[in-house]
Amino acid sequence: MAQSENQQSSFSDIIELNVGGQVYVTRHATLVSVPNSLLWTMFRQRSPAELPKDSKGRYFFDRDGFLFRYILDYLRERDIVLPDFFKERGRLQKEAEFFQLHELSQRLVPAVSKDNSLGDEVGAHVDPEEAALACALGGTGITTSAVSSPSLRSPFQKYGFITIGYRGSYTIGRDIQTDAKFRRVARITVCGKTSLAKEVFGETLNESRDPDKPPERYTSRYYLKYNFLEQAFDRLAEVGFHMVACSSTGTCAYASSDPNEDKIWTSYTEYVFSRN
Fold it and tell me: Which of 51, 83, 249, 265 lies 20 to 30 Å from 62, alpha-carbon distance?
């Protein structure tokens, strides 16, 4: 028993974690708040020298860094409130099992359907009136705690803005009656809060230019792995966003110094989407 207490005291009160490239800072007491969990075992029964660390001395876990924020929320509050239209419920349950948070894992089991519609309730009991309300809303993934206590949600879980940028160019010949020659679109950019962008676009979001952005920070460096603007619009509509603004610019240049040669037009358009 004395050895266990000495090992626990060897950890600092503030702990830095690197979970799949995402950096988290929390208290030692939070990590050991659930007895017999994996984190409790690691940070109470073992010493700092025994735990894997990254190059900066942060304790390292090769797990999903984005989903770990919900693991920490549960450790702090013994409750969890997921965002509307949350699509990672199954993966979060696997993370809960990995960290040996068995109560959380059970609460994440879908109660009704396989597509996380009415099955998104976090609590063990669903009030019939709340279930009817969820059905009336089209199965939007409302959690029991979110329905009964909406004030528990943080603002980014209720609403947000995402800006889609679209750049392309095309050539118009001297005979304006001929078909324009469109060039390949370079990419579709995504601007907004990191956590919201990941929630909406998931694995289709390319994060290579901004891989270490914290979940609650904003970025303008993400882009999509496909080049069809309609796909982005469809996805945003599916998760409750609607367009609120649009702006576009265009420039024209000649392919050569000869004004009789084809003109190259380049356009850039931004579409602003909101979810209230």
Answer: 83
Q: Are 138 and 224 in contact (CB under 8 A)?
A: no
47: tokens are 């010493």
| Contact indicator for 135, 151 with CB cutoff of 8 Å | no
pTM equals 0.43
156 and 192 in contact (C-beta within 8 Å)?
no
For 118-164, write each residue's pLDDT tens digit: 334 434 344 444 444 444 444 433 343 333 333 333 434 457 899 99
Q: State the Cα–Cα distance between residues 16 and 22, nearest whole angstrom.
A: 11
Phi and psi for 50 in degrees, rounded to 5?
-85, -15
Q: Strands 14-19 and 59-61: what pairing? A: parallel
244, two tokens: 């609120």
Task: Residue count of the chain, please give it.
Answer: 276
Higher pLDDT, 91 or 209: 91
User: What pLDDT, on the 0 to 100 scale, is given for residue 258?
Assistant: 64
Residues 6 or more apart whose Cβ sits within 8 Å of residue 255? 171, 261, 262, 263, 264
Do the Cβ atoms of 26 and 72 come closer than 8 Å? yes
